[in-house]
Amino acid sequence: MKKSHFWGVIVTSIAVSLGLTGWTSTAVHADDTKEIIFWNPFTGPDGTSMQSLVNQYNKTNPKYRVKNVSLTESDMYSKIPTIVNSKKGIPDLQIVHVERIKDYVNNGLLDSYNPYLKKFSGINKDNYVPEAWVNGAYQGKRYGVPLDIHTSFMYYNKKLVQKYAPHALDDNIVTFDEIKAAGKKSQKDDIAGMGLTWWKPLFLSLYGQMGGELTKNGKDPDLNNKTSRRVVNFYKDMHDKKITTQDGDDPMQLFLTGKQIFLPEGIWMNNQIKESDIDYGVTNAPQLSSDSKKIVNWSSSHQFVLLKQPKRDQARTEGTLAFVNWVRTHSIKWAESGQNPASLAITKDPKYLKMQQSFLLTNKVEQDSMTIFNYRYNGYLADYLDRYAYDAVFNKTSVSQYLKKMQNTVQDEVDAQMTN
Amino acid sequence: MAEVSLKSHEQVSKHKRTRSHPFVYLLPHLAIFTIFFFIPLIFGIYIAFTKWDLVRTPVFVGLDNFKNILFSNSIFHDQLTSGLWHTILFVLISVPFCVLVPLSLAVMLNTKPKFAKFFQGLFYLPSLFSISAVVIVWSLIFNPNYGPLNTLFNWNQVWTGTQPWAWITIVVLTVWWTIGGNMIIYQAALNGIPQDYYEAADIDGASSWKKFVHITLPSIRGQLLFTIVTTTIAQFNIYGQPLMLTNGGPNGSTTVLMMNVQQNAFGSGQSLAGISSAMSVILGICIMIVSMVQLFLLRNKD
Amino acid sequence: MKNKKQGASQWLSFIFLILLSIIWIMPLLYGVMSSFKSNIEMQSVGFKFLPINWILTNYSDLLQNTANTPVFRWFLNSIVISGGSTILVLIVTSLSAFAFSRLRFKGRNVLFIFLLATMMFPPVMNIIPLYKIMTLLGWANTPWAMIFPAATGAFNIFLVRQFMDNIPLAYDEAARIDGASDWQIFRIIILPLIKPVLFVVALFTFTGSWNDFLWPSIVFSDINKMPITPGLKLLQGMYVADIPTLMAGAIIAIIPTFILYLVAQKYFLQSMSLSVGVKG
């Protein structure tokens, strides 16, 4: 009796869900369907934008419809090598960050666009933001077509800027000196000057401004040097003087509750900040110098790539490129989640020009400020910067130890790689 | 007695034609085990002797990976030694709690107090949650800005970012999350001890502690052994708690071996699957050695 | 005198248990309460146990956002996967345990110890080759990818076998003399008697599969096919700074295992009278 009751629960629930989920339709993609599988790491507002972009495309009755598959970024990157290796269920179109391309090409994970580009003359360098376009090519071949160029810039609280740094924004360049001066005044009122948010862009942007390079010979990392020491000490000094947020603080929360003046963050966070009732503006990431020619805004780019297929189908691939080409002229949807599309067609759209992030694309000086740190072994460096993050700035380890370990980690990992 | 019944058992079997081959009963599990566990395991061990990026064909390199992680002064050697040390540290701190806390709960529940069933349900409850859900709940509790611990007591502690608190938060979470299974096993075991053992001890005037040491513990020795070994194995595989609660910090002090295994195989750079696999082989060997030592020390002496 | 003493320890235990259970339930209750708060309230107000404004929007928003986070779908997928795993494990485990406990064959103990020893390797080692096998079978993104690996474990066989060993052999013999086959002994005599331990195995398997984390996040790429635990991780990426919504997701995820537990709990008590027989 009791037993049947128990089994009843399980069996009914299975029966119900079998009906609802239709789990018997197993195949991820069958090659004869006229559907393109498109993998991307877009979740949250980005995910919604991409889905509506894809829906819009499918309404145009294309020869090949697009199926949008959103994955979490880390899961997606774990899957790419395994799925290419297994030679089954490989998506037709894939979004990766631009810094991955060199490594992926070397590992034989990508097919080049070159044989198909003749038919799609719109996909050329004149139609894209140069920094994003240039980095999509490697060894003279095109592997990535940029969807966007996303930048880590800076949000500021208008009221607090007026109070503590009234002239900082006159030239749209907020220097570290200006932040320090404001932070000194504001800390008396228990207001933080600047949030220590995502370490990787903060570190790399200042490293770039100071003229640092990630590698000298293109292979071996060069991370433990005078410049990198200066960068870490620079932030450490700001932290020790309580200009910045401290360990355990949540900079985003402090900003949203009006307890922090400056928030260096990605343009992709705009939606979340928009929802709050903070009166805010956006500007360049914090700079060392107020010379507009020297601005560095850390950027990356989502690029469409073609994962290596054992047998690439000409018609399917052209169907895929048709979508990529269509996105180029319809990417206003992509801008709505706060992103900057890499297609220059967007800069003629009045709707876009009203968006806050548009200042980065509309003039040449700002376009040049966007810098992609495209070191071939960027992945190892990124993992280190994300895991150990502010440990040196927060005095949990010494600066020299921190940088020595960073250098050794990346160097040893590069050396341990499988070579061609 | 046992021998006699065994003999008759076999005698009967000789006369019966209805006996099926034992293999028939083993087949379903063995087939599934071989395809979905054993073959992948062998291949996984093989990878430890290769250089592999998960994409191309693995290249056999002999013992290079083991030499690299065991005897060189590369970063992988650091990753292995510090990761293993942190894992062992966690095992040493958490296993006693994960045995003693549920054991005392089971002893208390075994006195059959009011609402025993309710209590049992409550202590088992967290075991039903996935690690993601558990970490979501606890990172709220430990949140330095608006977590109840800091706001309620007016503390200003960065729980997950400073030692020894980082380890303490991980252990508290683990104990809270995992004791349910062991508690059930102990409860069952305690329930099975014949009441007359205790009655006899009462007549001799034994104290509660003496009864616990001389009657209770020996009677549940088998279950204790089982849970100590399984708990140790489970804790050696610790991964989700430090990954999601402390991200291995502060300064890598809670980075356990599984995190390094994972990052080397599925990190942002080209996969170092060979090194990753060699690290997990070492971890597997450690687990085996520890389990065997435990089995040896706690073996039935009669 | 004896009753008095027992009464005292009973009361002492009762008080301790009350204290401990308060500690145990508080984080969870606080989490549940937080799921009814707005994010602004959560972040700006100091310690408040109960929400000032009770809101349900965290739940409704989450359930309505079916394009990005099909929580209900994940939920059903998880039920299929965990239910399927449980059934397969029960069948496979009881058969195998029967062979190890009741049937004599050459190399029985060696095989058994071998099975247990392999369980000591960290599961991460199998993941890459296992993924390859699943793609070869075309099982990636299907429930099978989780159901079959769930049935490889030997610990369950160990538990069930130990329990069976406690059932007197005399039962089998009596049946054998009456002409029963092995299969009949298994079906008619053993199976009903091991019911309690099977409930324990069922609960462990169901929750284990429900909460499995590493493997499903590798083998499921289709957002509509994945179970709820990797789904929760997806939520975590999406609502980084929105703890109340995350909490709502976590609470939705624990409901089924909770219900299953309520159903199975009485069998735990039943299994106690027969004792989960684990002997060293």
From TrEMBL, chain A:
Domain of life the protein comes from: Bacteria
Cleaved signal peptide residues: 1-30
Swiss-Prot/TrEMBL keywords: Signal, Transport
SUPFAM superfamilies assigned: Periplasmic binding protein-like II
Family that this chain belongs to: Belongs to the bacterial solute-binding protein 1 family.
Alphabetized PANTHER family for the sequence: MALTOSE-BINDING PERIPLASMIC PROTEIN, MALTOSE_MALTODEXTRIN-BINDING PERIPLASMIC PROTEIN
Protein name, UniProt field: Extracellular solute-binding protein
Organism (species): Weissella sagaensis
Organism placement in taxonomy: Bacteria, Bacillati, Bacillota, Bacilli, Lactobacillales
TrEMBL record, chain B:
Main location, first listed in the record: membrane
Domain of life: Bacteria
Keywords associated with the record: Cell membrane, Membrane, Transmembrane, Transmembrane helix, Transport
Family recorded in the similarity comment: Belongs to the binding-protein-dependent transport system permease family.
Organism: Weissella sagaensis
Keyword Transport in annotation: yes
Location of the protein in the cell: Cell membrane
Record protein name field: Carbohydrate ABC transporter permease
Automatic annotation (TrEMBL), chain C:
PROSITE patterns documented for this protein: ABC_TM1
InterPro entries found in the cross-reference section: MetI-like, MetI-like_sf
Gene source species: Weissella sagaensis
Keyword Transport carried by entry: yes
Membrane disposition: Multi-pass membrane protein
A Pfam family the protein falls into: BPD_transp_1
Protein name (Swiss-Prot/TrEMBL): Carbohydrate ABC transporter permease
Keyword Repeat recorded: no
Superkingdom in the source lineage: Bacteria
